Amino acid sequence: MTKPVQIPRFFVTSPSACPYLAGREERKIFTRLSGDDPNLLHDTLADMGFRRSQNIVYRPACAGCNACTSVRVPVARFKAGKNFARVLRRNQDLRLNLASAHATIEQYHLLRRYLQARHGDGGMAAMDAFDYQMMVEDSPITTYLMEFRLPFDPPAPDDPGRLLAACITDVTGDGLSMVYSFFDPKHDHRSLGTYMILRHIQIAQEMGLSYVYLGYWIEGSRKMHYKSRFKPLEVLRDNHWQTYTGPQGSG
Prior knowledge:
Layout: E1 11-12, E2 16-17, E3 25-26, E4 28-32, H1 38-46, E5 51-53, E6 56-60, E7 68-74, H2 82-90, E8 95-100, H3 105-118, H4 129-137, E9 143-150, E10 162-171, E11 175-183, H5 192-207, E12 211-218, E13 234-237, E14 240-243
Parallel strand pairs: 11-12
Antiparallel strand pairs: 1-4, 2-3, 4-6, 5-6, 7-12, 7-13, 8-9, 9-10, 10-11, 13-14
């Protein structure tokens, strides 16, 4: 018998400028992950398109706009093409450290370099070390910090290597959810953002999970175009997951 999920109280944010579509405003509906089984509550809401940020889950609720779409990769159907295979080979010297959701100053410094290079005018640009610690550790569900490290040459005893990339990752009932990833901007040639998604797909396959959740995607958005490269891609539309076949309205 399936355990019932207690219906939480939901709230709606005030309108604010949309960070993705110029001239539009965004609002979010959100609730707190609480109760006897926050993992079950999270899984239920994630299947409805909600995303987690610390102990809150949210979903866009913008008036007259539904551009933000939840997307996921069905890992059993995914096959890495030549370009993805090259990315994997390029980073085969990296080592994965699967750690508990515990923040370190090394991770924070990497995040600062990433934000300054890629998102200097974004909402996270002013994050301090305490903010980062809360982002990582304030999770009531099963969460890991995946670190991707380059061994020193020559290797040093008991040294984990140089941290090049990291991802806060939730484990759901049917997959891995990439909450937030960041990497060293000095290593653009490695395509570390793409590499982390590919490794999550491999890890989900090894764990017997069905999906890797990539968060929200806006069709036509240059910032989010990379997500559409991971085919087959499933999108949540009209409360149903379906394979993405092209722009809405196309033949």
